[in-house]
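User: Hi! I have a protein structure encoded as tokens and I'd like to know what sequence might fold into it. I'm fairly new to this, so please keep things simple.
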């Protein structure tokens, strides 16, 4: 059985909960990724983390102290302050595949997703630092990330390429903790006119379907 961990970062609901409103584009793409994975792997066990309906707190002083305190020196206060991080890291460790959906907010990942990153980036749990070098501790996992951008032109050679602090950052974070197999799907110009947006979404979903139609090792 393949286990996935799905993380959704848009403040807007996905198609299942949009109730007549425009559904989140990034969540819609991640739904297509999840459908592709289900078709390819058969039944999936999915843990869902909706960072909009279940937001994570920013890390606190005691959380950081707990991150750097050896297990035998932890007290109840530090254990309580790091309990959420423990849970989120356990979800990551249990997953074979990570599926993340995120919109661009102010040229970077939403604060909701940054809060998750701050909880799971943890020395000797998800990365190590030895002999002056960092190494990722999460092995044999892959990630699929669905990105949505309001403007267009963030791709290679595009006029906004250098403004994209979302995709290069998230890719680097995943690589840093050991997840080097990262596949990205994007939709751009979601704030354009409806016909342009519809065409962009159709093309993005067809791209995802083509990816998962392959018979290789996904
Ligand atoms: C608070 C906020 C900030 C945004 N900042 C940017 C931005 O810096 N660049 C951009 O291209 N689009 C920006 N957008 C547009 C979103 O990235 C775009 O609408 C995206 O498709 C939303 O994804 P969603 O439908 O999954 O929520 C912003 C939207 C919001 C709500």
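Assistant: Happy to help. Inverse folding works backwards from shape to sequence: for each of the 218 positions I chose a residue that suits the local structure. Here it is:
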């Amino acid at each position: 059985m393949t286990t996935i961990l799905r993380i959704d970062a848009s403040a807007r609901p996905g198609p299942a909960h949009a109730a007549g409103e425009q559904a989140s584009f990034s969540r819609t793409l991640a739904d297509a990724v999840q459908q592709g994975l289900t078709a390819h792997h058969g039944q999936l066990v999915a843990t869902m983390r909706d960072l909009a309906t279940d937001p994570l707190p920013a890390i606190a002083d005691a959380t950081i102290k707990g991150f750097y305190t050896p297990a035998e020196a932890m007290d109840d206060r530090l254990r309580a302050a790091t309990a959420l991080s423990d849970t989120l890291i356990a979800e990551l460790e249990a997953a074979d595949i990570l599926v993340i959906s995120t919109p661009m907010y102010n040229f970077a990942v939403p604060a909701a997703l940054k809060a998750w990153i701050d909880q799971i980036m943890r020395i000797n749990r998800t990365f190590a630092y030895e002999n002056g070098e960092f190494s990722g501790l999460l092995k044999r996992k892959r990630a699929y990330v669905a990105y949505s951008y309001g403007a267009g032109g963030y791709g290679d050679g595009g006029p906004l390429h250098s403004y994209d602090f979302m995709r290069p950052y998230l890719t680097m974070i995943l690589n840093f903790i050991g997840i080097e197999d990262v596949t990205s799907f994007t939709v751009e110009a979601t704030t354009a006119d409806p016909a342009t947006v519809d065409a962009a979404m159709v093309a993005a979903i067809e791209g995802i379907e083509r990816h998962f139609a392959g018979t290789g090792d996904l």
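A useful reference point when you look it over: Helices lie at 25-41, 61-67, 76-81, 83-94, 111-120, 167-176, 194-213. Feel free to ask if any position seems puzzling.
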